[in-house]
Amino acid sequence: MSRIRTPVVAGWFRGDRTDEGPGGETGEPGFRLLGTRCAACGSVFFPREDHFCRNPRCAGTELTEVPLSPRGRVWSYTDGRYRPPPPYVSDPDREWVPYTLVAVELAAERMIVLGQAAPGVSVADLAVGMVVEVVPGVLNEDAERTWTTWHFRPVSGGADGRESEGGRP
Question: Which of 12, 6, 5, 165 has its CA nearest to residue 74?
């Protein structure tokens, strides 16, 4: 019996795979975080906003869904060595496994997005300024569902991961 893939938060991302072209660039359609852009001032928001512009200088209410940049640069990172309290989902009968949190700067959108690093990526694998890409992830699974989310992983290529956000050195 296969599990139903269910986004942890509906409307925050699309796709369940990353399509890469021959040069390593992320292609369409692939996995992308989704934000919204205000038609009046051009501000982009994540998490998405569907009712009003969050820019305090703008009274706009027309917001359009936009896919966010698939790559960005590590702005900051840390590890989570404790089991967070509810509503975080974790099995209390399983041994706690630390995870890595990454704050990623999306230059085109002029914002920082927070997310977990992909499984197997630790703080030792990251550096401020390193290029990372958003990829599909799994938060939890039960008998009926696989709860999907997003993760960040370093872009392979350069020895220090400092290639361009567009995938070209």
Answer: 165
Phi, psi of 145 (to 5 degrees): -130, 150
pTM greater than 0.85 (yes/no):
no
118-155 tens-digit pLDDT: 999 999 999 999 999 999 999 888 889 998 999 999 99
SS (H, E, C) the chain: CCCEEEECCCCCEECCCCCECCCCCECCCCCEEEEEEECCCCCEECCCCCCCCCCCCCCCCCEEEEECCCEEEEEEEEEECCCCCCCCCCCCCCCCCCEEEEEEEECCCCEEEEEEECCCCCHHHCCCCCEEEEEEEEEEECCCEEEEEEEEEECCCCCCCCCCCCCCC
